[in-house]
């Protein structure tokens, strides 16, 4: 019995072309469910024409794809569905999957598909635009669920200011702290606390808040990094404790800060593809810096500089020399695997600037440590070991 099940599994893996061979080895006929699985997988991995005999440059009609997606979702778990969907795009060129509203509604949320959809956003027909936004919103919700609480905790932990000003001001009186610090001065006869010292908030702390600048490469290879960076940017932008700027670049510069109220709006503001001029973008970001020692600059890129690499290195060194906290996060794909120009990364690391690939779960840790002025050496070493 076990051998028969194993033969059936191998028959499903190797496709309908091996039916006679496995039949001669004693494999049982496929069940109705297994036949459906075989048909769904053969459409992508089989040697035939796939979807209902469609081949060449003409894609299958939407009803055929809808049925295929429905079968796929009913037969396999979500992780497997996401893999097969991605292979359908790559192997069969089924960009139609991402341009039909009824198909978008049935697609399993997947980072690679979301990246492809953002790349194709200018080709999306009007009838599909809302379905495309809803698909992206599903991905955003998953990333937000993973990051939001930790990002907020990181910022709060780093900027939990207990600095007090010696200048008295009724509007800045810290009642809670004053009472807690003077409890021992409670006067039983008067039934009240007679404070030995009154504490006032440092009102300048809100004026001199940290400025976080995210300078994000929007070349075609940056899909997953853009998704994670955009969600983090919107979380930060919703917090009054920091000021957030978002800059996107290829060979041109786009300031997307005004779109940070909604991560989907922000994502659709990116123009993925094109060349790369990192030095030009850093020059723009230098003009955004008002208080260097209160500025945290993230460059998020694969470092494939199409412009002047010497200018890139010079400008990033200028930021650091001015007192800006600079961190370079390398492009990631496939759940955290980095890809980048190694030579440029080595030059940046030689400037004593953290330059490494960071998995999404570690972004809050990086944020908290940099805001606290702590080093990232262990994270850099860990990234090098893993990759």
Description of the molecule:
The strands form four sheets. The chain has a six-stranded mixed β-sheet with strand order 7-6-5-8-9-12, sandwiched between helices. A two-stranded antiparallel sheet has the order 1-4. A two-stranded antiparallel ribbon has the order 2-3. It is globular and about 95 Å long. Helix content is 49%, strand content 12%. The chain has 17 helices and twelve strands. It is an alpha/beta fold and 387 residues long. The two termini are 43 Å apart.
Give the class from helix and strand content and strand pairing: alpha/beta
Query: Main β-sheet: number of strands, strand sense, barrel status?
Result: 6 strands, mixed
Average pLDDT score: 81
User: Main sheet: which strands, in order across?
Assistant: 7-6-5-8-9-12
Number of strands: 12
SS element count, helices: 17
End-to-end Cα distance, whole Å, is: 43 Å
Approximately how much beta-strand content do the residues carry?
5-15%
Cα-based radius of gyration, to the nearest Å: 27 Å
Shape: globular
Helical content band = 40-55%
List the helices and strands in order.
HHHHHHHHEHEEEHEHEEHHEHEEEHEHH
Uncertain runs? 52-58
């Amino acid at each position: 019995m076990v051998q028969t099940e194993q033969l059936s599994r191998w028959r499903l893996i190797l496709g309908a072309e091996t039916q006679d061979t496995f039949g001669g080895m004693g494999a049982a006929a496929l069940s109705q469910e297994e036949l459906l699985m075989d048909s769904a997988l053969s459409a992508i991995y089989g040697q035939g024409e796939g979807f209902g005999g469609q081949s060449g440059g003409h894609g299958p009609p939407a009803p055929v794809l809808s049925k295929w997606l429905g079968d796929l979702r009913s037969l396999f778990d979500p992780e497997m569905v996401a893999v097969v969907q991605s292979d359908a795009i790559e192997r069969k060129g089924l960009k139609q999957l991402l341009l039909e509203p009824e198909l978008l509604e049935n697609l399993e949320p997947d980072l690679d598909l979301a990246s492809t959809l953002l790349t194709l956003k200018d080709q999306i027909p009007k009838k599909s635009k809302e379905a495309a936004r809803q698909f992206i919103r599903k991905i955003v919700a998953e990333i937000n669920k993973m990051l939001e609480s930790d990002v907020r905790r990181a910022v709060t932990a780093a900027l939990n200011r207990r600095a007090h000003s010696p200048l008295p001001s009724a509007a800045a009186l810290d009642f809670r702290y004053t009472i807690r610090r003077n409890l021992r001065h409670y006067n039983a006869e008067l039934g009240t606390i007679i404070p030995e010292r009154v504490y006032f908030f440092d009102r300048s702390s809100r004026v001199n808040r940290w400025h976080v600048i995210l300078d994000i490469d929007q070349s075609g290879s940056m899909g997953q990094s853009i998704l994670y960076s955009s969600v983090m940017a919107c979380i930060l932008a919703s917090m009054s404790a920091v000021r957030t700027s978002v800059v996107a670049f290829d060979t041109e510069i786009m300031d997307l800060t005004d779109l940070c109220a909604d991560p989907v709006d922000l994502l659709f503001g990116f123009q993925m593809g094109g060349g790369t001029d990192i030095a030009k973008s850093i020059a723009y970001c230098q003009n955004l810096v008002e208080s260097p020692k209160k500025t945290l600059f993230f460059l998020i890129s694969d470092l494939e500089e199409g412009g002047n690499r010497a200018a890139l290195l010079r400008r990033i060194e200028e930021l650091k020399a001015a007192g800006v906290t600079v961190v370079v996060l390398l492009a990631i794909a496939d759940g955290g695997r980095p890809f980048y120009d190694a030579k440029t990364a080595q030059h940046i690391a030689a400037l004593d600037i953290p330059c490494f690939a960071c998995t999404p779960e570690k972004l809050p840790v990086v944020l908290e440590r940099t805001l606290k002025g702590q080093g990232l050496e262990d994270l850099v070493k860990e990234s090098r070991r893993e990759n």
